[in-house]
Predict the structure.
Amino acid sequence: MRDVLHPEARAGIELGIRTREYYSQTLFSPEVPGEVDARQLIAGAPLRLPPPLLDESGQGFAYLNAERIGPRVVYQLPRPGDILTGPVGARGEFTTAFLARCRQSNRAASGNWFRLLQQTAEHMPEDLVLDEGSEKNLTRLDLAVKQVLAWIVPGIDFETSEQNPIDSAQLSYIRDPSGTRTQVRPTHMGFGVSYSLPLIAAGIALSELGLLLVENPEAHLQPLSQSRMGIFLALVASRGTQVFAETHSDHLVNGVRLAVKNHLLGAQEVRFFYFTKRRGDDSSSVRELAVLPDGNLSAWPEGFFDQIERDLARL
């Protein structure tokens, strides 16, 4: 409980999940001893199975931790019950196996990603080019992931395989400046590629009623890729998937704003919440910022991604 509540908290926090078939409630209270397992506080009946949208079908829910799996020579295979946090795992550890299985089964992408990317290319032609085979390829999940990754991190392709004899999956990236299709181990590539791949796979796999939670989607990416990641998250949200992203990147925020300005996502469908620590105590205040149809924000409070202007003014 001490990790959930503020040390001086006088009121508790109540969290609940409700669907037509399922209801669960958890109470974090300052009156409960610090080491009590929160699962013991679920109201009503004992623990139940999660609602269908949170089960291992991998289409309803995905959570990605800020500390995701970086480059590895091999990746683990999921076991039954491992993927409650989503199809790729909370740290992206099952991404390689997930994509390999999608390729083997020809699993379809969730949503019309050709239309979404075509609209993006029409509004921002310098950012995205679709070839003649894109419409067919973008209907398959693993190929859609390849297309989006190559846009967010230009020039990157990948191959996956499931190695059942050694209970692992293998991933290799492809750099192809001369048409040689040279495969490169993930350990010889930057962390940004390995950190982005799980997020792209989860975003394309989720259903229209899905829920995506991600910490630091911009991690280890260059500014160009951070901006495009913001546009990608906006495209995921435009399909009806609810997206919650915690970010420290003005480039990612600007990518979302560009998506709004170019009519890829409605302004009323975006909210930014700016957390700032109050002076004189240990509490935080939260300010909600709306995005206007032209991509501007309803307000720009002090400390909200304004450091570059401050530094440039001093140079």
Observations:
- The helical segments are 95-105, 113-123, 134-137, 141-152, 191-205, 223-238, 250-261, 307-314.
- Residues 35-47 have pLDDT under 50 and may be disordered.
